[in-house]
Amino acid sequence: MKPVTARCVRLDRLESSERALWSQWVQTQPELQRAFLSPAYVEAVAAVTDGVRVVVVEREGRCVGLLPLQSVKSAWSWLGLWEPVGGGMTDYFGLVSPADSTLKVSEILQRAGLGALFYSHLDATQASIFNVSSRAQSRIGLRIRLGDQAGAYWESLAQRDKKLVSDTARRDRKLQQEHGAVSFEYQSSQAPADLERLIVLKNAQYDRTGKAAPLQVDSNVALLRRILAVRDPACTPILSVLRVGDRVVAAHFGLRCHQTLHFWFPVYDADFKAYAPGRILLRRVIEAAWSDGVRLIDRGEGDTPAKRDFANEEHLFLTDVAAGPGWRGWAARAGFALHWRTTP
User: Fold this and answer.
1) Is this prediction's pTM over 0.85?
2) Do the beta carbons of residue 298 and residue 255 sit within 8 Å?
3) Which of 86, 97, 259, 335 would staple 295 via disulfide (CB 3.0–4.6 Å)?
């Protein structure tokens, strides 16, 4: 088999035929039906962030793979380091290529003249493509597979955890009894205002928990606002809202890619914590999403009781460094290996 060639280009230098292939591969391959791998998502990131590029991989003049990346702006920049488009906002990463691809990312980096690629959120199905090393970190990802028959998911969940199902319904009724009528919109009718409220509530959650706060970064907020206007079947924004009167009790901003819905930014008003509003919202999102044609809800990386309550499937996400040849690749591997050994 002849060797590949690769070029690192801006989005506006991408051929229309290459973008069409990109959309086709994401649409037709279930393992690539992830909004974060779509051209629409990459275009949204590029509109608010500098340094976004796509590595176009070719063999005998034919496009055989696409790898969207962005340059890293940090103390590691001198290594010519790259990362997934969107950085910490991105819940999925991988090479977009045909199902029978035999490509190797190390060769792609070499052909494109790139130093090294630090990545997280790589689905384990692409481990061989990225030649994942023994030093790679792995984290569980959880999913909710809804099935093709109406009600089948709820019947299965009730058999597995009857208390969870009944308690969620009870809290839903209690919320209505004590605070009045509860309304739910799978797709908000006042999306811009509801997105701003979600951002406020999410940042308050970050402050309470002491966790990293991506929505306190201007470019990340700009990305959410940009994506809200996207209309693409591979990257459709879904802003769901649960209200009591005019007050937002819980909300979720996610991305739909064909039959997959990424549960991306869920949040609830802490004043209503006793009612488990996050569970009430998720229950209603699941029902509405199934009716809308969604068959898989992806909860992203991380294994928590709240995520596991409704999940019925798990997989692995991988974090590692893919390095090209030469001193920059060697330095990237050595530097990150040391970082991982010394970081708790």
Assistant:
1) yes
2) no
3) 259
